Every structure is written in structure tokens, then in C-alpha cells.
What does this fold into?
Amino acid sequence: AADAVTAYVGALGPRAGAVVAAGTGLIATGTDLTRWRRADGWGHLLGDCGGGAWIGRAGLEAALRAHDGREGGSAALLARAQERFGPAAGIPGQLYPRTDRPAVLASFAPDVGACAPGDPVADGILRAAAAHMADSAAAVCPRGGEPLIAVTGGLLKLGDPLVVPLEEELAKRLPQARRTAAEGDPLDGSVRIARDLAADALTLPGDEGMLWVRTAGDG
It folds into this structure.
């Protein structure tokens, strides 16, 4: 099973709905129990909008705008960036050669969260992230019935500066969905899938790219 599916099953089990997995990156997965849908998860260069790397990159951009004296800058984020990475002029040189660039960008997301209550630029970044997360959830959430929706992942540790606008955006974009806490994590999802397969009780839809079953004859 794809990682997004194990995260889904860990959060909601075999029930219709949508799960947003938000960490360094971001991906949304949904099913109406007849097929799977996914949105984003395209990596930090082309997507993962609203994820930790996206927030960190936006925060560092605002810091460098403040350094330059351009509109949209944040003195608070500039101070945080220089505490974490050193002089502003050297920040790009620290980031671009790194093979773990998404994780380094995401490491600045907590600084954005810490600044948000008193800084309108940081607050705006988190509100934009919340809107992106809700967009992805809306793209995969089943249209009929009363689907469930859960958000999981380490990004939720940013707390109210992200969670409050996210709840507002989800309520606005998905009024038919019922918000619920994730029951477990991707490991729990893997165990659930394996157990259901062993009991011939798997009710989730198969998919070549999302959820597939290999048999002894598959090689």
C-alpha cells in the first residue's frame, strides 16, 4: 500500500472520507469506498502546498524581504531566521546545496508558528497554508453522504496559529463532512490492512498506484 493509504487507514479505518497528512510535505487522500483519490504530494518544488517545507520557505522569503526592505517582509521572521541560520545574506548558500532541503525548510515552520500571534505576515502564511490544506481535502473528499475528515502529521504541533484557521477553512470548504480525530498513525494503518487481508476482510478499493495485493504467483 502507498504511504498515503496507510496514513488514511490509520486515521479513519475502512470508512469513507478524506485524510490530510501534513508534515514536511503534504498529501490528501480520499475514498468513497469504490475508488481512491489523491491531491498534492508533489514535492517541495512543485507542490506540498501548506506543508512544513512550504511554510518554512514562505517564512524565509518574508525574512529576506525584510532584509531587502521590500514589501511583504517580516522583521520578526528575519530575526528568527538569523538566529537559526546566521546572517541573512548567507541563507541561500546554506539551503540550495542541501540534499535534505525540504527538511531544512520545514525546520523553520515552528518559527513561523511562534511569530504568528503577533506578526501579521507570519499569521498570513499560516492562514494561506490552512487554505491550501483545505483545498487538497476538498479535492479528494467524497461528495455524497456525510464523509469523515481527519488531519494527521507533525505539522499540527504548530498549534492554534495553524489549527484554528484550518478548522475554519475545512468548515467553509466541506460543510457536509464530519471532522474527527485521527484514530492512529500510518503504522496502525499498515497493521490494519495486513490483518484485514489475512482475514479476507479488506473492504477498501484496490488501485494500481494506491492499494494493491501481491499473490504468490505474482513473482
About this structure: The first strand starts at residue 17 and ends at 22. The two ends are 17 Å apart (CA to CA).
